[in-house]
Design a protein that fits this description.
Elements: E1 7-8, E2 18-23, H1 46-60, E3 77-80, E4 91-94, E5 101-105, E6 109-115, E7 121-126, H2 128-133, H3 135-142, E8 150-154, E9 164-166, H4 167-174, E10 184-186, E11 192-195, H5 197-207, E12 212-215, H6 230-233, E13 239-245
Parallel strand pairs: 3-4, 8-12
Antiparallel strand pairs: 1-2, 2-13, 4-7, 5-13, 6-7, 6-8, 9-11, 10-11
């Protein structure tokens, strides 16, 4: 008997028709370094990914197949269901009920958003490159709602205790926001710092006018039983963060 699927559910005051979940490694048919519920890590058997996605759709009772993005650590935001098949983008939003926004990650930060009235949802893929480039600001700007009406939830990502970066990464953030220096701690090696993705995302969202931010602090790197982690394992699978408006709710 296979292991049951397990999901991480956002703890935020979203309207009832907003449905969201993040997959974990629990369940699934992938093997080797992708063992469990790999939602898209390249190198896995394609048929395993298809079956894993089928199981997730069934378990969550997804109203439609998610729109899977070709993520490139950029800032493009696509609207669903108008986007082309497999769009190259790092964020998606929807106002139509049933359209499922999805991003994949294995240390990068998935950020889910909705408005307080439950009329729109969005998902963004925010690793350090995307954060520095402005993917969260682009997502907020794309949503047809005032930022003050938005709620955001930060999913699992690599924890600051494991995310060592070079001085050039710190400089990218500090040059446009001096206070972002508080999200970096010297790592004890020359020109190396530990970076807090959650803190950086909160700062970026706050600067864009989104002040109701929930979640954060769940480290993919520290929990190999539940999460894939590229920094920890190198070759690995991907989790998926999914959000949609429930039809008829």
């Amino acid at each position: 008997m296979s292991e049951p699927l397990a999901f991480l559910r956002p703890d935020w005051p979203a309207p009832p028709r907003v449905r969201a979940a993040v997959t974990t490694r629990g369940g699934g048919v992938s093997g080797g370094p992708y063992a469990g519920l790999n939602m898209g890590g390249s190198g896995d058997r394609p048929e395993s990914i298809v079956e894993n996605r089928r199981r997730v759709a069934q378990a969550l009772r997804l109203p439609q197949e998610p729109c899977w993005l070709r993520q490139v650590h950029g800032t493009r935001v696509v609207r669903l269901p108008d986007a082309e098949a497999l769009p190259q983008a790092d964020a998606a939003y929807a106002q139509a009920a049933g359209a499922v926004c999805a991003v994949q990650a294995a240390d990068c930060l998935p950020v889910l958003l909705c408005d307080e009235a439950g009329t729109m949802v969005a998902a963004a893929h925010a690793g350090w490159r995307g954060l520095a480039a402005g993917v969260l600001e682009a997502t907020v700007a794309a949503l047809p709602a005032a930022p003050a009406r938005l709620l955001a939830w930060l999913g699992p990502a690599i924890g600051a205790e494991a995310f060592e970066v070079g001085a050039e990464v710190r400089a990218r953030f500090v040059e446009c926001d001096r206070a972002a220096a508080s999200a970096f701690v010297a790592a004890g090696r020359p020109d190396k710092f530990f970076a807090d993705l959650f803190a950086l995302a909160r700062r970026r969202l706050g600067a864009a006018g989104v002040t109701r931010v929930y979640g954060g602090g769940v480290s993919t790197h520290a929990d190999p039983a539940r999460f894939f982690s590229y920094r920890r394992d190198g070759v690995t699978g991907r989790m998926a963060a999914l959000i949609w408006l429930e039809p008829g709710a």
